[in-house]
């Protein structure tokens, strides 16, 4: 368990919010969006100086020894401030994989580099909500040969290493891969919210045994997927809360027929629905994070419930915030449209509402509770 207190987390949230207010305003964010890399290298270095990048890395590797709860504080602030830096793949997925399944040598090389801002790592795995062919790891005399394709690798273009999930002798495995290795092809694009993504193609890419994470098994992958899903939920909560605040402010200031449109009852009802949706998503998200932080048996069920609830809320709040703003909502210059696009991406990452509700329904029909799911 993390040694951080609730006061520590509040101070962390305050420091991130101050940074966003002081140094991540609309002009700076616009410059980042139009840059070649799609995120701020200077900001990444600042995050390292402020200790954010090592927040969940063990003290032995230069971090602060926090855990998922502290990462969730960071991710919620990232959603609220629309941060563009590679927090999810590097801090949650890659650092989590290395800490939970990496060798001592891999941890010693990469965890301090992440905490100090010297390394960016991406994570490439199949989409659980889609039926994708696995990357195959074929054993060779001195390592493995990887072949296959992975789409939508966040920040693949900037990564110093990509952790790739592959199938090894019929079982899942994780490999540290250099993006410049022979046989690696990356095709770059931007996601709906302008984050850089890549399609990764592996054509008989040779990796050494030392590049395999020895503890990268199915149990670790399940924990990583839970962590990533909850980090996405926390980010969505931050974005939803910010979108609701902007929409409420707009309803109070926009006038029509001589009065504020916020006085129209039908719009008040919509705003109430949006507020309740964000509160419900936040409540189940923090409950799931609390369970995951102590390894509670019900973590898997709560994670699915949190992702289902936050995905549905993200869709509702994203769409309603645009409708209540009218045409101005989709202009590039007005920030509510950026929150909408962020929420549309977060809705689908690690499974949408329908996929997680199907899982919950299947477990219920089979009589499987939180301890057995």
Written description of the protein model:
- This protein is of the alpha+beta class.
- It folds into three domains: 114 residues, Acyl-CoA dehydrogenase/oxidase, N-terminal domain (Butyryl-Coa Dehydrogenase, subunit A, domain 1), CATH 1.10.540; 89 residues, Butyryl-CoA Dehydrogenase, subunit A, domain 2 (Beta Barrel), CATH 2.40.110; 148 residues, Butyryl-CoA Dehydrogenase, subunit A, domain 3 (Up-down Bundle).
- Strands 1, 2, 3, 4, 5, 6 and 7 form a seven-stranded mixed β-sheet that branches. Strands 8-9 form a two-stranded antiparallel ribbon.
- A hairpin with a 2-residue loop joins strand 8 and strand 9.
- The longest helix is centred in the middle third of the chain and has 36 residues.
- The chain is globular and about 80 Å long.
- The model has no long low-confidence stretch (mean pLDDT 95).
Give a topology summary:
Blueprint: H1 6-23, H2 26-33, H3 41-49, H4 68-81, H5 87-101, H6 104-115, E1 121-124, E2 136-140, E3 143-154, E4 161-168, E5 171-177, E6 184-190, E7 196-208, H7 218-253, E8 255-256, E9 259-260, H8 265-293, H9 299-325, H10 336-348, H11 353-365
Parallel strand pairs: 1-4, 2-4
Antiparallel strand pairs: 2-3, 3-7, 4-5, 6-7, 8-9
Helix pairs in contact: 1-4, 4-5, 4-7, 5-6, 5-7, 7-8, 7-9, 7-10, 8-9, 9-10, 9-11
């Amino acid at each position: 368990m993390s040694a951080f207190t609730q006061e520590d987390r509040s101070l962390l949230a305050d420091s991130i919010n101050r940074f966003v207010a002081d140094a991540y305003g609309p002009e700076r964010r616009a410059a980042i969006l139009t840059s070649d890399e799609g995120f701020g290298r200077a900001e990444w270095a600042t995050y390292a100086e402020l200790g954010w990048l090592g927040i969940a890395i063990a003290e032995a590797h230069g971090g602060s020894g926090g855990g998922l709860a502290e990462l969730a504080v960071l991710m919620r602030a990232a959603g609220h401030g629309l941060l563009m830096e590679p927090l999810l793949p590097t801090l949650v997925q890659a650092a989590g994989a290395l800490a939970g399944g990496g060798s001592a040598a891999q941890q010693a090389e990469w965890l301090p580099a992440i905490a100090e801002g010297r390394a960016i790592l991406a994570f490439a795995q199949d989409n659980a909500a889609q039926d994708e062919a696995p990357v195959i790891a074929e054993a060779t005399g001195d390592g493995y040969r990887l072949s296959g394709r992975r789409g939508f690798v966040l920040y693949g273009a900037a990564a110093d290493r990509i952790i790739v999930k592959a199938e090894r002798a019929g079982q899942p495995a994780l490999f540290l891969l250099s993006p410049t290795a022979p046989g690696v092809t990356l095709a770059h694009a931007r996601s709906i919210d302008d984050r850089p993504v890549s399609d990764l193609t592996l054509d008989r890419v040779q990796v050494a045994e030392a590049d395999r994470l020895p503890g990268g098994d199915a149990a670790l992958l399940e924990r990583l997927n839970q962590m990533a899903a909850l980090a996405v939920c926390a980010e969505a909560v931050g974005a939803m809360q910010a979108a609701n605040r902007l929409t409420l402010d707009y309803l109070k200031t926009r006038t029509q027929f001589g009065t504020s449109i916020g006085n129209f009852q039908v719009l008040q009802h919509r705003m109430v629905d949006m507020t309740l949706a964000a509160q419900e998503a936040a409540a189940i998200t923090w409950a799931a994070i609390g369970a995951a932080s102590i390894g509670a048996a019900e973590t898997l069920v709560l994670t699915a419930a949190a992702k289902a609830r936050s995905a549905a809320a993200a869709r509702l709040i994203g769409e309603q915030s645009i409708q209540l703003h009218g045409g101005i909502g989709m202009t590039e210059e007005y920030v509510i449209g950026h929150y909408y696009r962020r929420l549309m991406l977060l809705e689908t990452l690690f499974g949408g509402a329908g996929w997680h509700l199907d899982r919950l329904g299947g477990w219920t029909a089979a009589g499987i509770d939180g301890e057995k799911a």
